[in-house]
Fold this protein.
Amino acid sequence: MSDLCSPMIILLDDEADAFWCFERMMKRLRKNFRATGNSVGVEAQLSNLASITQVIDPKLHQHLETLGGGNYVFAFRMLMVMFRREFSFADSLYLWEMMWSLEYDPELFFLYEEDPDLTAENSGRAKVKSIRQYGKYERENMRSGGKDAEAPLPISVFLVASVLKDKSAKLTEARGLDEVVKILNNITGNLDARKACSSAMKLHKKYLKKAANTNR
């Protein structure tokens, strides 16, 4: 949790401001931390990551399954702490800003604040007039119909997929999960945030296109 909280404390002089920023961030990420007797929320994202990798890099996915890593638990940390340990401090902040801009949804504030029992008509929220008011990633989801899905995939999952794709050559040579973890640990502080976001967007488009072709 300190990985997520520390940027707020460092950047904001007022502890109250830091607290409320952290509180809003945790609301955004709360699905990752919800746990039941059988699972933790982030497991759904790991499952989605497996499905994405199977589509965009079937050879890598098959190799990871052969090693016993088909549940993608080795990517757990990336999703839980939002890549804070994979990128430098400055790059991780830059990455967060890019992710949230790409995922921007004008109705997001209302989802955090309003009574969940209220309907959209009674909530007082203004109707969004144009798709251009959404972030680029959200626009792609809306055009593909992904926005209407039960659980739209967050861009963070595609960011992890882009890291795996970038290291695919080394990962397919790994002889065990310990080597997979070692390869991923070696990228700490050596990733470029802009390149990672660009790769994630390309993979997202590729995945949506292949998924659409499969459903026809």
The chain has a mean pLDDT of 81.
